[in-house]
Amino acid sequence: MKKITKKDLLAYEAQLISIAKGAGKILSPYQKDLANLKIDIKEAQGAVSAADHASEEYIIKKLKKLNPEIPVLAEEDFYKKYQGNYKYLKEYQDHDYMWVIDPLDGTNNFVHGLEHYCISLSLTYKLQPVVGVIYIPERKETYCATKGNGSYFIKGKDKKRLKQNKSRSKGFLLATGFATEKGKPFNDEFRKFKKVMTSISAVRRLGSAAIDLCYVAQGIFDGFWEKGLAPWDVAAGKIICLEAGAKITEYNGHDHNIFSKTIIVGRNPLYKKLSEMVSD
């Protein structure tokens, strides 16, 4: 495969925005007819609907036309092949470039009629995102970033660069999610949640990690932490946060990649404070 230049990456960003909007047009009619929407439950991973599959098929078809040499890691395709067993992610770890896609992040919100869902598309290089696009169909809002080119929020003809202001010293608003596995994984995370709540003003759990990350980049949320997310949950949001100036690591402070099992996102002094609370 020929070398991908920064000019190519910027072109991919524009094309991913177009693809995400196309997927949004596929998803919206499904939500307007929920009574007839086919929904299945994936073991330990929540709901999947006909809308997820339709969106993913469209996206993969478009990506294969865009660059057929780049492999695709897509949520529903991975589940179909490996029943969602994350140990098989190792099959993808040696790729240089890779498309990483979530055709519908926030499926549980979607199937209950909530408009808080999105399409998340990313191009990664050696397990780090270099392009990311997140599109929220019901609000027609786009978040996007290319490595070295900044993060942006687009709504209509308005395009604003995202750059976090200096982190608040108090009155923090954070976001998180909980492990889908019950028992010890859930209890461990809930213990961390209670620890954070003792010293943080407020925490939100909105049901879409991708949108949570966009809100950190935008400065709506001050930080985010979660365990057990998949590559397609974090890839696009990670580059959007990084280009907006956020710091991202694993719980233990180690460098984060899209296969990491934990993630902390924030700015100092909050990042340091949050990492101390969730690292044990």
From TrEMBL:
InterPro entries (UniProt xref): IMPase, Inositol_monoP_metal-BS, Inositol_monophosphatase-like, Inositol_monophosphatase_CS
Reactions it catalyzes: a myo-inositol phosphate + H2O = myo-inositol + phosphate
Name of the protein this chain belongs to: Inositol-1-monophosphatase
Protein family membership: Belongs to the inositol monophosphatase superfamily.
PROSITE patterns, per database record: IMP_1, IMP_2
Signal peptide: none
Enzyme class: hydrolase
EC number: 3.1.3.25
Coiled-coil regions listed: none
Keywords assigned: Hydrolase, Magnesium, Metal-binding
Organism: Halobacteriovorax vibrionivorans
Entry cofactors: Mg(2+)
